[in-house]
């Protein structure tokens, strides 16, 4: 006798509209916050995981409260919660961005020996062949750093240091941050409207006046 089993199908967010956002303790935590804010305005579901050092960096670099950072995300996961949804490849996403990415986090991801949910989620992103963007924030770099970056690039990660685009003629730090974050999100084919694009914004190609 065959018993029919009733299966309830739960409506889920399309993978391309869901992104994991990691914020590590490197300088430049404002990049991670702007990613969250711009994605919320674009209707993308964000899953935030933030290191304990990142919380300290927010206090050093900004006047923003951690509660405000968490409120910008759709869902926040504890750095120690290795049973979180984002620790599983079965939880579908468009990928993950770590903004900023410390050398320590980058090194853990490069070796696959992960000790936090942030680096575990990044490792899962790689094994599922999803897009992983690491905004590595460090300079200068020694050979060990560069070899780790090369190893990550070989397995599919994108190493994207937050390098300002001065051709966009930013009038403030905020504009510089937004342009950089917009370029990072371009890598996920998400346009948040903050990028001044060469070849599209005609005034960018105006000939400079001679000094």
Topology:
Layout: E1 18-23, H1 29-41, E2 45-50, H2 52-61, H3 66-71, E3 75-77, E4 95-101, H4 103-111, H5 117-127, E5 131-136, H6 143-154, E6 158-159, H7 173-186
Helix pairs in contact: 1-7, 4-5, 4-6
Polypeptide structure, described:
- This protein has 211 residues and is α/β, with parallel strands linked by helices.
- The chain has helices at residues 29-41, 52-61, 66-71, 103-111, 117-127, 143-154, 173-186, and strands at residues 18-23, 45-50, 75-77, 95-101, 131-136, 158-159.
- It has a six-stranded parallel β-sheet with strand order 3-2-1-4-5-6.
- Helix 1 (29-41) crosses helix 7 (173-186).
- The chain is globular and about 50 Å long.
Short description:
It is built from 7 helices and 6 strands; from the N terminus they run E-H-E-H-H-E-E-H-H-E-H-E-H. The protein is of the alpha/beta class and 211 residues long.
Instruction: Give the spatial strand order of the biggest sheet.
Output: 3-2-1-4-5-6
Principal-axes geometry comes out as: globular
Q: Helix content range of the residues, please?
A: 25-40%
Name the beta content range: 5-15%
Order of helices and strands: EHEHHEEHHEHEH
* Mean pLDDT metric: 92
End-to-end distance, in Å? 89 Å
- pLDDT < 50 stretches: none
State the helix count: 7
Return Rg in Å.
19 Å
């Amino acid at each position: 006798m065959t018993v029919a089993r009733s299966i309830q199908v739960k409506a889920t967010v399309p993978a391309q509209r869901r992104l994991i956002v990691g914020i590590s303790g490197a300088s430049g935590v404002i990049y991670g916050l702007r990613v969250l804010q711009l994605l919320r305005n674009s209707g993308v579901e964000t899953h935030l995981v933030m290191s304990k050092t990142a919380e300290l960096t927010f206090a050093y670099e900004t006047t923003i409260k951690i509660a405000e950072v968490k409120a910008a995300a759709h869902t926040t996961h504890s750095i120690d919660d290795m049973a979180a949804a984002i620790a599983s490849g079965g939880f579908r996403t468009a990928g993950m961005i770590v903004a900023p990415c410390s050398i320590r986090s980058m090194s853990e991801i490069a070796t696959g020996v992960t000790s936090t949910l942030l680096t575990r989620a990044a490792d899962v992103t790689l094994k599922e062949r999803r897009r992983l963007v690491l905004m590595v924030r460090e300079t200068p770099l020694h050979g060990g750093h560069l070899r780790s970056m090369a190893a990550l690039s070989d397995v599919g990660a994108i190493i994207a240091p937050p390098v300002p685009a001065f051709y966009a003629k930013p009038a403030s730090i905020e504009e510089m941050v937004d342009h950089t974050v917009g370029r990072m999100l371009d890598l996920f084919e998400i346009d948040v409207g903050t990028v001044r694009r060469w070849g599209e914004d005609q005034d960018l190609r105006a000939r400079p006046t001679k000094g």
